[in-house]
Amino acid sequence: MFIAEVLIFAPIDRPLRYSIPEELRFVIFPGSLVHVFVGKAQRIGLVTGVREVGGEHFSYALKPILRTIYDAPITHEILIQLYFWMAKYYICDLFSVIDAAIPQVIRKNIPLKLVTYFRLASPLEVIIDAKKLPKQWEALEFLKGNPFLLKSEFLKKFSRNIADVFLRKNIVYEVFQREERVAYTNPGLINPEFRSVQLTGEQWRVVESVGESLRQKIFGVHLLHGVTGSGKTEVYIELIRRVLAEGGSVLYLLPELALTAQVVEKIRSRLEGFRVWVWHSGLSDGERRDTWLAALNNGSMVVVGARSAVFLPLNNLRLVIVDEEHESAYKQGENPRYHGRDVAIYRAKLHQATCLLGSATPSMESFFNTKFKHYKLETLPQRIDQRPLPLVHVVDMRYEPGANGVLSRLLLRKMEERLEKKEQVILFLNRRGYATTVLCRGCDFIALCPHCSLPLTFHRTISRLICHFCSHQEPPHSRCPKCGSSEIFYNGVGIQRVEQMVQKIFPDAPMARIDSDVMGKKHEFIHILNRFRRGELAVLVGTQMIAKGLDFPNVTLVGLINADGSLNQQDFRANEKTFQLLVQVAGRSGRGEAGGEVVLQTHIPVNETIFLAKNNNFDEFITKEFELRQCLGYPPFRHIINCNISGSDARVAEEFAKEAFGKPLGLLFSEGAAGVEIRGPIISPVEKIQDRFRYSVLIFTPSVSKICEKIYNFRSKIPIPAGVTLSIDVDAFDFL
After folding, report:
1. Is the pLDDT reported for residue 404 higher than 60?
2. What is d(CA 575, CA 569) in angstroms, rounded to the nearest whole number?
3. In 331-459, at which residue ranges do the beta strands (DSSP E only) sit?
4. SS3 348
5. Per-residue pLDDT tens digits for 252-286
6. 298 to each of 248, 277, 622, how far by Cα in Å?
7. Which 3 state secondary structure label does DSSP give 178?
8. In terms of residue numbers, what domain contains 341?
9. In the structure, what pLDDT confidence band is assigned to residue 75 with cuts at 50, 70 and 90?
């Protein structure tokens, strides 16, 4: 008898055993999707293993697998290994891993897209009189010149009635062919101009170094630290060319959906004849399904995608590229709370492939690994053609009159100069909305979210107060709800206010705003960037969506409106995030032949992080930050596991966090766990989100792998009260 181990798409954290009926014996393998019964309910499951049993007896009767969803496995055994590793390392249920790894569109098995063609009959035995039936005669002559064409193309020129007559008289036959839905193939969306690029000596040095790892076909990680504009993407493309030429596959990860179109366009423009596939949540179900099936069925391909693309079942994976590897967007915010970069590295290890991490501002963790582990550091210290980095001006906003402290005199003067020269400007502020808080001058009222312990943000374009955590909305106040005063004051600057001011000061300069509020329409971001690239827009204002990776040669001025904003976060990574953000945004300027400038506005110009970012002094910054982190025992010198407890009843949540979780956890690691430190429980920086009160317990450890099983077993034995949830975030990025 053959049995299968099946992981159910339901909160069951271990595989269940099922018997394989004889008629399914040769169609069920590890990676197959199947229908099974769990109790009396029919569920979908993923087969993780198949084995033959002889005289083995079970204490219960095994239920049979009912049927398969596909005729072949939809994922690989090597990916099943990845799922089990993720569940162990990230201390989460297997269900949450496979739920994230295998999307609903694959489990649904939506129909293939079939396209109908007209094929002209041969030999043609029908003669049409041109005088009696002129339209039919014209249609037949058209078909003689196009004996095999899309039915839709025929119907654009001739009526459906003529089509029906031709089918009835066997003049044409319908032929159905599958059409693969490949994203970003619409010429109106991206239009690559095929051309070759001559790499510099520095770029060739990096290509040969990484290429040596590819030739050896052994696992290795390279960190490419290249200044903004140094041509990291061209290095990636040359390596992709080599892998494809040898019949391998490439996975190219990006932190933002917004960067996808530009990267796809570049790859297609350099690798004429190679199809580039795309994977991210913004695609249609059909596009995602066809990309998944292409990964299964092609021996050699390249996929560009967001973090979830790490789960695609690519064959013969030889190269994994993680671009902008420092970005926090690679970290998943809900279970399983995996880091896309780290999962990509582990996947490369399973395939014995090469992993290439790239950034102008590498993360502390990755740079640490080049010094103390086996990552190999590659550098591109110069921009292409020896172009200089932009000149950075620091403006002390404490002494700036007028403009409500938003746009400095220097920034306005520089904008006027650049716009007169028909050059382009980018303004950056990482705050959505118009005003960040709504206050009353007559009393101490602040407009707060009723469900979260956070102020509401005023969005002027839709005239609503919005909570950016739970999406609660309400109309703005004309009078204070507390004292009745009409002295309502909108405080703090958001990107909408910057947009309004620029429009008022430069009414003749066409501009657009890019943030998550205007990106609801599919591909809207790409359309705006295309207009900017074509010169139809002079000014682009935006949030972090424009902070990295974008390449516009005519941008010669970048303004950072509030450069020190991220320094105020309750986060040990605040210095690192600020340095990365300032260097990345500044790097959008001066990437063409004209020199670039940056105006960096701050209220604390003497801050060391801002000073080092101004001078793009990564080496000194990372040396000082390493010293500080080592002194405090923070990552990368130790890992942090954030155990977050939340509950609708503050008292119950607090009691559980302290008595049922915090104390026994401390006792668990009080002996025999060198280097493990427990801090908390403490109230989370944002005390309440979505009507749930929150507490944190932090575990500091030199090694996650040595204690993850211990924590998992501990968690599974703790009775959790009704209304309380416990989530565990390994290598946490967000402590709010």
Report:
1. no
2. 9
3. 354-359, 376-380, 391-396, 424-428, 437-440, 457-459
4. helix
5. 999 988 788 889 999 998 988 788 999 998 888 88
6. 10, 11, 42
7. strand
8. 201-384
9. very high
Q: How far apart (Å, rounded) are the C-alpha atoms in residues 182 and 307?
A: 19
Residue type at position 199: L
As given in the structure block, the two tokens for residue 218 are 């052994």
Q: Read out DSSP for 268-280?
A: HHHSTT--EEEE-
Query: Is the Cβ–Cβ distance between 78 and 68 less than 8 Å?
Result: no
Task: Tell me if 613 is assigned to some domain.
Answer: yes
The mean pLDDT of the chain is 92
Q: pLDDT tens digits for 486-535?
A: 889 898 899 999 999 999 999 999 999 998 887 767 778 888 988 998 99
What pLDDT score was predicted for residue 708?
93
Q: For the chain, percent helix, then strand, then coil, each to nearest 5?
A: 35, 25, 40
Residue 537 falls within a domain, yes or no?
yes
CATH of the domain at 325: 3.40.50.300
583 and 597 part of one domain? yes
Q: What is the pLDDT of residue 402?
A: 62
* Strand duo 539-542 + 391-396: pairing: unpaired
**C-alpha closest to that of 188 among 535, 525, 527, 518:** 527
Among 278, 529, 357, 577, which residue's Cα sits nearest to residue 426? Answer: 529
Strands (E), 648-721: 677-689, 692-701
> Helix or strand or coil: residue 251?
strand
Kindly state the tokens that stand for 99: 């739920």
Judgement on whether residues 621 and 537 belong to the same structural domain of the protein: yes
Residue appearing with tokens 């972090």:
544
Answer yes or no: is 735 within a domain: no
Tell me: do 144 and 291 sit in the same domain: no
Gap between the Cα atoms of 573 and 576, Å rounded: 5
100 plus 125 within the same structural domain: no
At 13, the pLDDT band (50, 70, 90 cuts) reads: confident
Q: Hey, what amino acid is at 514?
A: I
Residues 406, 536 within the same domain: yes
Contact of 271 with 244, CB cutoff 8 Å: yes
| Tally of domains within the chain | 5
pLDDT at 724: 96
Give the number of other Cβ atoms within 10 Å of residue 92's Cβ: 23
Are 377 and 399 part of one and the same domain? no
- The reply to whether 482 falls in a domain is no
Residue where a domain stops, chosen among 178, 209, 225: 178
* Chain segment 606-624, per-residue pLDDT in tens: 999 999 999 999 999 999 9
Among 24-38, 144-158, 177-191, 455-469, the range scoring the smallest mean pLDDT is 177-191
Using DSSP, state whether 648 is helix, strand or coil.
Answer: coil
Only one residue has tokens 């998944």, namely 292
